[in-house]
Specification:
- The chain has 27 helices and 13 strands.
- By secondary structure, the chain is an alpha/beta fold.
- The protein folds into four domains: 158 residues, Tetratricopeptide repeat domain (Serine Threonine Protein Phosphatase 5, Tetratricopeptide repeat); 87 residues, Tetratricopeptide repeat domain (Serine Threonine Protein Phosphatase 5, Tetratricopeptide repeat); 167 residues, 3-Layer(aba) Sandwich (Rossmann fold), CATH 3.40.50; 178 residues, Glycogen Phosphorylase B (Rossmann fold), CATH 3.40.50.2000.
- The strands form two sheets. It has a seven-stranded parallel β-sheet with strand order 3-2-1-4-5-6-7, with helices on one face. Strands 10-9-8-11-12-13 form a six-stranded parallel β-sheet.
- Helix 1 packs antiparallel against helix 2, helix 7 packs antiparallel against helix 8 and helix 13 packs antiparallel against helix 14.
- The longest helix is centred in the C-terminal third of the chain and has 22 residues.
- It is globular and about 90 Å long.
- The chain starts with 16 loop residues before the first helix and ends with a helix.
Length: 636
């Protein structure tokens, strides 16, 4: 059996005919994803004979169905029986990957390759583990070696495509997946991964078609389905009703029955609460930067703070956040059931999701309802669709009255605004507006290119067409890919804009360099429908206002929320004509004076605003969580 990213099952060395026949039945069932049947047959065989091949295959099965902890003793026993068995070491590495321990997994893969240097399965999986630890150069080398030994190895081609996309080589990644789909149009992983690469290239419509095909082929992949939900957020033409219905469908398909309620919970509505925050992004990530001031400023007399970290590769930010928590739990390798049991054991009153349907989420654990009150906040711009999540924290700019009908959750409002920005320590000093030295206004965009769709470019082209002397700068990590640059040059050309007027810049490794690039533009143009958040805050902190186009749903209203908090509502346009007219106004002499005044005063204004007031936002979040708790106490 050869599953993408997995070591092959090993049907060798079973010599008793009756056992051999049953083993073949189990292998066939495992290959057909009939996991319960395969497990039952493997365990029946083990009752009479502890054979390493059976132990290894059963361990693989348990890892694939989220029960990796159970696989470890099986592989330990297999190694006792045959210490030099290559497949056992390879499968042990895979189990450690399932458990969120890629560095440990590498050691097992190295042992497997020491025994068999040509073991392509171990080579491919080791490359995946190296990529997870940040050693991309070694990962590339291993994938290249694997494909040289076995050019038709689909698992290595899939994983190479993932790595290429991660480093911004989107076109090369897309080429990998197109080759896989040429060989097999029903290759579900290829459909899913090409969709992710296309989305990063701003081609959300194409991505959606591939994701729909992927989840049709494999309805047992909740994370693929989550990718589809996130992709919907980038598309302007999808009705909100359809997006809401798809979130509900996700929950119906993937969420299991919730646990029975914990009848021993103290229902005192005023007592100190044990609150658990769950995130894969307690690391150098936007979610961490927006939550850190809230954690630092929380009232320890009212709230005991637990962090459930689903981070695979911790960093300095992880360590800093760990120091702010009353309790810290690493849950990256835990099954949903084990994670839910841990939440119950910790006696958590309110469990807060910080990821929604973004990468690494743990919504299936929330679906089990391990805490009396469950809330989603900050990390995702929509309902999560899970009935067991009863509340969503937002603000009235992002989700105005009427938004309730598109949520399974009750909305809780932060009166001072949803986001709390913590300015970067390495920010350079403010510089003069670039218009003075350039002789023309320069617009800019610093959003990831998933947000910069053809519709967004069309809006920007209207601005540039109205201002023939204006220039545009786009900067994103993915613009280091020459073929992606061509995609965007063609989009501007299609909108009637000479690509020579548009500078496309690759990402910078140093954050200070990124901030200096922002200061080289006069006005940032926001993406639509999916607004920027971190990039908007960074621009404002560098004295650069952001012109945004407001829409009818959360993703296209975040800009309004951020700008209102710093008193710049006049930069939020509610239709395309106003968006263009405001840009033209800013290009005038009067607009130049306005921009110069903002350049030197915006940072101080921002620091004095609710947007950067961690204590204010922490008190607001505590009030929301207390309201949710007291509502539950009153209805319990």
């Amino acid at each position: 059996m050869a599953l993408p990213g997995r070591a092959c099952c090993d049907p060798s060395a079973v010599v008793v005919p009756s056992v051999e026949e049953r083993f073949a039945v189990a292998v066939a069932a495992q290959e057909s994803h009939e996991y319960a049947k395969a497990e039952a047959v493997y365990r029946e065989i083990l009752l009479s004979e502890e054979h390493p091949a059976v132990l290894v295959n059963l361990a693989q099965l348990l890892g694939d169905v989220g029960r990796a902890e159970e696989a470890l003793p099986l592989l330990g026993r297999a190694l006792e029986l045959e210490p030099e068995r290559v497949n056992t070491h390879a499968q042990l590495g895979r189990v450690y990957e399932h458990l969120g321990k890629p560095a440990v997994a590498i050691l097992s893969y190295e042992r497997a390759l020491a025994l068999d240097p040509g073991h392509v399965g171990a080579m491919n999986n080791m490359a995946s583990a190296c990529a997870a630890t940040g050693d991309r150069e070694r990962a590339f080398s291993l994938y290249t070696r694997a494909l040289k030994l076995e050019p038709d190895c689909e698992a290595a081609l899939v994983n190479l495509g993932v790595l290429l996309a991660d480093v911004g080589r989107l076109s090369d990644a897309i080429a990998c997946y197109r080759e896989l789909l040429r060989r097999d149009p029903t290759h579900a992983s290829a459909h899913c991964n090409i969709a992710n690469a296309l989305c990063k290239q701003g081609r959300g419509g194409e991505a959606l078609r591939h994701l729909s095909e992927a989840i049709t082929l494999r309805q047992d992949r909740p994370l693929w389905h989550s990718n589809l939900l996130l992709t919907l957020q980038y598309l302007d033409a999808i009705p909100r009703e359809s997006i809401f219905a798809e979130h509900q469908r996700w929950a119906r398909i993937h969420c299991r029955n919730p646990l029975p309620p914990d009848l021993g919970v103290d229902r005192d509505p005023h007592r100190r609460l044990r609150v658990g925050f769950v995130s894969p992004d307690f690391r150098s990530h936007a979610v961490a930067f927006f939550t850190e001031p809230l954690f630092r400023e929380h009232d320890p007399e009212k709230l005991e703070f637990f962090a459930y970290s689903n981070v695979v590769s911790p960093d300095a930010v992880t360590a800093r956040l760990r120091g702010l928590a009353d309790g810290w739990r690493d849950v990256a390798g835990l099954t949903d059931a084990a994670f839910a049991a841990l939440v119950r054991e910790d006696r958590i009153d309110v469990l807060v999701d910080l990821a929604g349907h973004t990468a690494g989420h743990r919504l299936l654990t929330f679906g089990l309802a391990p805490a009396p009150v469950q809330v989603t906040y900050l990390g995702y711009p929509d309902t999560v669709g899970v009935p067991a999540v009863g509340y969503r924290v937002t603000d009235r700019w992002c989700d105005p009255p009427g938004s309730e009908r598109y949520h399974v959750e009750r909305l809780l409002y932060l009166e001072a605004g949803l986001h709390c920005y913590s300015p970067p320590r390495e920010a350079p000093e403010l510089g003069a507006p670039p218009r003075g030295k350039n002789g023309h206004i320069t617009f800019g965009s610093f959003n990831n290119t998933a947000k910069v769709t053809s519709g967004t470019i069309a809006k920007w082209c209207k601005v540039l067409a109205a201002l023939p002397d204006a220039r545009m700068v786009m900067k994103a990590n993915t613009l280091g890919d020459p073929k992606t640059v061509i995609v965007y040059q063609e989009l501007f050309a299609r909108g009637g804009i000479d690509p020579a007027r548009v500078t496309l810049l690759a990402g910078t490794t140093e954050h200070s360099g990124h901030l200096r690039a922002i200061s080289d533009v006069d006005v940032v143009l926001d993406a639509y429908p999916y607004h920027g958040t971190t990039t908007t805050c960074e621009a404002l902190y560098m004295g650069v206002p952001v012109l945004t186009r407001v829409g009818d749903r959360h993703v296209s209203r975040v800009g309004l929320s951020l700008l209102t908090q710093v008193g710049l509502e006049s930069f939020a346009a509610h239709d395309d004509d106003t968006f263009v007219a405001r840009a033209v106004e800013l290009a005038s002499l009067r607009g130049a004076a306005e921009l110069a005044e903002l350049r030197y005063g915006l940072r101080a204004r921002m620091l004095a605003s609710p947007l950067c007031d961690g204590k204010l936002k922490a008190r607001g979040l505590e009030r929301c969580l207390r309201e949710a708790w007291q509502t539950w106490c009153g209805s319990a």
